[in-house]
Write a sequence for this structure.
């Protein structure tokens, strides 16, 4: 099985409008599919810097003098640009989805379809695991992450069931967690469990905080005319990306200068998000929820 099939590859790369001698960032390297496509369009003087906090991604590093892989969370890309003596770049790409490699490895604990330890850390250097959250966080804190990050309607019932279940024994494996919550699932089972596991994963990896921090740095580090190409997979991510493109901040509220002129750092390239064609969805069902938004620095 391939490490990961890049989603919306043609659309996201074309959206960058790559210049051969430009400097580009791939904030989510993963299997390297998007990076390889960027390198194909770069000339000898071009440069691509990719980021991935998952140590497994290093196995996919591309042997090319125009390529550098940084083993760090993308929220730190400004510091790495400074370290490399760079300030502004010509384009930034991010595919915010989990790779097939991460989903299909039970020991990582990302999927409810496999039995594995309740870990969910993208970076094994993090202290917090999903088991820590489930066993140690208060019922109120659990309600908060389930409703906010999973948009689960019966979050209070779910949190209460977990609080009750962990009293008899600590939760350690994904199968026992699924068995515990099965009786209180409302609506389509797979969708419910996917949202539940999503909420845990987001909390463990502080994904929304990292995304807000990274997006908040893009305007400062993109050259005028530089492109931002972001693929998101759930409404929380897409809403934040949309707001940053619209207003340059997570709230989406446009600030105005003293003359009442709107101050926004980006111009939208596509008013509506680009979604995969049916052919791509048939080939790669995990692309179904993908949404691509492209913007240009003004």
């Amino acid at each position: 099985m391939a490490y990961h099939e890049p989603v919306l590859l043609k659309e996201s790369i074309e959206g960058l409008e790559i210049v051969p001698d430009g400097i580009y960032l791939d904030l989510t390297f993963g299997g390297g599919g998007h990076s390889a496509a960027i390198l194909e369009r770069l000339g000898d003087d071009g440069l691509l810097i990719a980021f991935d906090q998952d140590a497994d991604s290093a196995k996919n590093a591309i042997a090319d003098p125009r390529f550098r892989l940084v083993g760090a969370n993308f929220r730190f890309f400004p510091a790495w640009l400074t370290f490399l003596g760079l300030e502004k770049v010509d384009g930034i790409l991010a595919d915010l989805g989990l790779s097939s490699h991460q989903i299909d490895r039970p020991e990582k604990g990302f999927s409810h379809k496999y039995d594995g330890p309740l870990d969910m850390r993208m970076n094994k250097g993090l202290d917090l695991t999903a088991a820590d959250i489930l066993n140690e966080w208060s019922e109120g804190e659990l309600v908060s992450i389930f409703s906010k990050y999973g948009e689960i309607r019966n979050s209070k019932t779910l949190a209460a069931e977990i609080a009750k279940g962990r009293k008899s024994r600590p939760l350690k494996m994904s199968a026992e967690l699924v068995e515990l919550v099965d009786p209180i699932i409302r609506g389509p089972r797979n969708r419910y469990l996917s949202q539940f596991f999503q909420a845990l994963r987001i909390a463990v990896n502080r994904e929304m905080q990292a995304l807000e921090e990274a997006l908040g740095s893009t305007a400062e580090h993109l050259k005028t005319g530089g492109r931002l190409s972001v693929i998101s997979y759930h409404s929380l991510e897409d809403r934040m990306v949309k707001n940053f493109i619209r207003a340059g901040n997570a709230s989406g509220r446009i600030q105005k200068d003293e003359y009442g002129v709107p101050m926004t750092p980006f111009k939208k390239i596509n008013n509506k998000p680009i979604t995969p064609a049916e052919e791509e969805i048939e080939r790669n069902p995990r692309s179904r929820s993908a949404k691509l938004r492209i913007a240009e620095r003004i």
